[in-house]
Amino acid sequence: MEQTQKYLAPQTATQDENRKGIAEVLKRGLVRYVADTPLGSRIKVTFAPDAASDAGATLRKDPWNLWVFRANIGGSFNGERSNTSRSLRGSASANRTTDDWRVSLSTSMNFRENSFQLETDVFRSSNRNVDTNALVVKSLSPHWSAGLVGELGSSTFLNYDRRIRVAPGLEYNVFPYSESTRRMLTLQYTVGANSLDYKEETIFGKLTEKLLDHKLETSLSLRQPWGTTSGSVEFSQYLTAPDKYSVSAFGSANVRLFKGFSFNVFTNLSRTRDQIFLRRGAASTEEILVRQRQLATGYRYFVNFGISYSFGSIFNNIVNPRFGGVGGNFFFND
Q1: Per-residue pLDDT tens digits for 90-109
Q2: Among 91, 149, 232, 284, which is disulfide-ready with 219 (CB 3.0 to 4.6 Å)?
Q3: Across the beta sheet with 183-198, what order do the strands follow?
């Protein structure tokens, strides 16, 4: 016997509410199997029609028309006698998703300032970043979709006073989008118009410029019984300056090689030839050490990996949180 059970989580649900909801769905799914065993006579069935009808009525009378909004703000302060640091961050988003349309709007802001006491001198560094993104996607078929991407940003680290990009594009998924929770293999192509205003003159003698670009990206995502893996390769190039381009590759995997033994890896590699935003003039020693500005580079890489092995009794499932023991923090993975 095979069956599929679904749990629909509200956007505002906590991890504990999701855990309870999934547990109830699993209970209902197991009933048909237990009913054919000697334990079937010990099953009790209850029915709550009011809750189900109220949920259906709420869905039909959705006052938000499927829109979901989020907002958060936070910060940190720390220091000692020779240095201090403070940061402030905030973000907001609005999303609406249906089978035919996807609309996503988001904005985020980050500010960080550090102060260092160097003998009799005080060195201060600060970075400010603001990013706003908009995405509208129309479903064309089980495999095709069309979208419009909008980006607006400002960054002291990347020397942008204002950066605007608007790009229409197409995406093809080898697998039907209905299988996206298990597997996706997409090919996406966008052509964009860019308007760039710089805080300081660039190494190419520019304070402002307008450029056309195009981007081609292929992505793979798999969630299988043996584990999960995802990866992507992106090529971007300025059409009005073909010698300015970049190629980047990302990959991650968490694979169970055999019972109790798993391997995980995360890697990001890129070849950069499109740093048109670099400031004119050499960076000072302090700017290099505290990463206050982007430096010229032809490549970037990051690799993180690890293995884990678990063995022993399969019956040791008692939760005892005394003195901060396992289970005391009540962390659950989605």
Answers
A1: 999 999 999 899 999 999 99
A2: 232
A3: 67-79, 83-97, 101-118, 121-139, 144-155, 160-173, 183-198, 208-224, 227-238, 241-258, 261-272, 299-309
C-alpha separations of 294 from 105, 230, 235, 317 in Å: 27, 28, 21, 50
CATH number at residue 260: 2.40.160
Number of domains comprising the chain: 2
Q: Give the confidence band of 53 by pLDDT, cuts at 50, 70, 90.
A: low
Residue type, 69: F
Q: Looking at 45, 63, 81, which one is the last position of a domain?
A: 63
Q: Which of 168, 177, 119 shows the shortest CA–CA distance to 146?
A: 168
For residue 54, the SS3 value is: helix
List, in sequence order, every residue forming a beta bridge with 119; answer none if it has no partner.
none
Give yes or no for a contact between 89 and 75, defined as CB atoms under 8 angstroms apart: yes
Who contacts 276 (Cβ-Cβ below 8 Å, separation ≥6)?
196, 202, 204, 206, 209, 211, 238, 241, 244
Q: Is residue 107 part of a domain?
A: no
